[in-house]
Amino acid sequence: MTRMKRIIVSVLDMITRISGSVLDMMTRIIVSVMDMITRLCVSVLDMITRISGSVLDMMTRIIVSVMDMITRLCVKDTNTVVSESTDMVDVSSSTAITTNFIGQKTENLGADMCERSCEELSTMFQELKGLRVVVGNLIDGLQKVTEENTVMKDTLGKIKNSKEKHMCWQDGRMFEDKEDWVVDSCTTCTCQDSKIVCHQITCPPVACASPSFLDGECCPVCLPMDSEDGWSPWSEWTECTVTCGTGTQQRGRSCDATSNPCSGPSIQTRKCSLGKCDSRVRQDGRWSLWSPWSSCSVTCGEGQITRIRHCNAPTPQLGGKDCDGQGRVTQRCEAKPCPIDGGWGPWSPWAICSATCGGGVKGRTRVCNSPEPQYGGQKCPGETNDSNACNKQDCPIDGCLSNPCFGGVDCNSGSDGSWECGPCPLGFRGNGTHCDDVNECDIVSDVCFKAGGALRCVNTDPGFHCLACPPRYKGTQPFGVGVEAASKNKQVCEPENPCKDKTHNCHRSAECIYLSHFSDPMYKCECRIGYAGDGFICGEDSDLDGWPNQNLVCGANATYHCRKDNCPNLPNSGQEDFDKDGQGDACDKDDDNDAIVDERDNCPLLYNPRQFDFDKDDVGDRCDNCPYEHNPAQIDTDHNGEGDACAVDIDGD
């Protein structure tokens, strides 16, 4: 029995060492082999299969042997009842093992038989059973790797030949040149000269906050289920809050509604199991992950959002410390402004009654501003205006209702039905009942200007007005009502003086000369010195010869020179111009326009550009009265055009 006990203890220690060593060795081997795959490809893949298979077979045989030995040692009595259940539970997309053991102690086998109780050995048995499942899964996984390695080895052998044919390789498949294929719903690829060219689909924008992705479809779409009464879709479940035992997972959603409030929870929690924890180990508590923030506690105004966490990752046990800190955190949140219903302000004072007697109406108003309706709140109920009857007493008899007074005269009635008229209006006289027009023209005889004894005042009913001042007079044209207005506002007419009044039409360079009130015209215009014209039209005249420097407008029957002076700077009232070139002889240096100035021209007034002078007397043949006789004096006694030097009859008799 002592020997058996030592064997059991040794086996248990060996199991612990082998389990840890084998798992470490497997990890190192797998990591090393994966690195070698990248560098050596086909040859290393075969070695992975042989090594992994041998190690797993050895570990499986050891575990089975130990489990059989424990079974023979601990389960001998027919009274022993041991039940076990091993389930595979899908938690957070990973596979975990949960072992629940229910049993009774076997009969006492004696202290010298086993140092460990059957409960402890059974727990170890269950752990080994779970390890066997894990190892089995590893064997299956390595078997798949071996099969894939075989396929890869065959495929790698073809790659060398495929490059020469411009083929492409992707995801374990060979594609011909120019061949198209679909990678996924969002990507299509083409083989072009051994190069893979892929194109991504561009998705249009969607109108919902949380669109759905359908199987086989690349782009998101909006479905009715994408929003449950304003809620966004649920998020993925969080990781389990514990690494062993029973923990929790959470998922959340947010309220996307803009008008209707969301109903239902914003956070969901479920349990998750990751295997039985070792109850023999003291452990401190640790916080789980924070849950997602909850929705705002209010749909309008200011509220709170909350998130929580649990001290269960792991839960403190065997005297372990509790988690430090708070398990709940809140923050302030603001939703849209809350609707504010309108409230009436105070009534205004009553208005004046619409009648002083006989029944009238008075009103008052109020305003919906205490407070004003905002953010979709209700308007104030009721009416804005209110009215009430007033002055219901009977009216006294009014003697003025029959209009006994003259039009425009105030009527005052007494309580006994009597009446009294006020004074007549301005411009009238009488007792108030009858009023006659006042003739201001007769009473104030000089109110209007008199010319030749003619009456120029016009009486109106009521009032008066004066006619306009006579021709060649200027002044006011008063009007008014009543004798007082006629006395204060008399007409004054003065003779006109266009020169003094600046109403003449003389040129700005001319002087206006007033003749008399009765002359026709009353004034005349004369151009100032240095100007030429008729006074109404004037132009500058530099040489004061009566001819303007520039052409003037020539009126009908003009009595002034309107043509431009042909010598503006030399007086030449005759405007002589021998050669008719527009330049007067007084200022023309070549009067005959033969291109020879007068000072050197032997005939300055006759065109003779060749300057012939037969008798050499400095008088050209064209103008010499004796061209063949030298006679520079050009004496011609009888003025017949023939000089005395060559005349047969000097005196012409």
UniProtKB/TrEMBL annotation:
It comes from the Eukaryota. Residues 166-223 form the VWFC domain. Belongs to the thrombospondin family. GO terms for molecular function: calcium ion binding; heparin binding. It comes from Salvelinus namaycush. Residues 495-537 form the EGF-like domain. Gene3D superfamilies: 6.20.200.20, Laminin (2.10.25.10), Thrombospondin type-1 (TSP1) repeat (2.20.100.10), TSP type-3 repeat (4.10.1080.10). Keywords: Calcium, Disulfide bond, EGF-like domain, Glycoprotein, Heparin-binding, Repeat, Signal. The keyword Signal applies. TSP type- repeats lie at residues 576-611. PANTHER family: THROMBOSPONDIN, THROMBOSPONDIN-2. The keyword Phosphoprotein does not apply. Pfam families: EGF_3 (PF12947), TSP_1 (PF00090), TSP_3 (PF02412), VWC (PF00093). One of its GO terms (biological process) is cell adhesion. This is Thrombospondin-2-like.
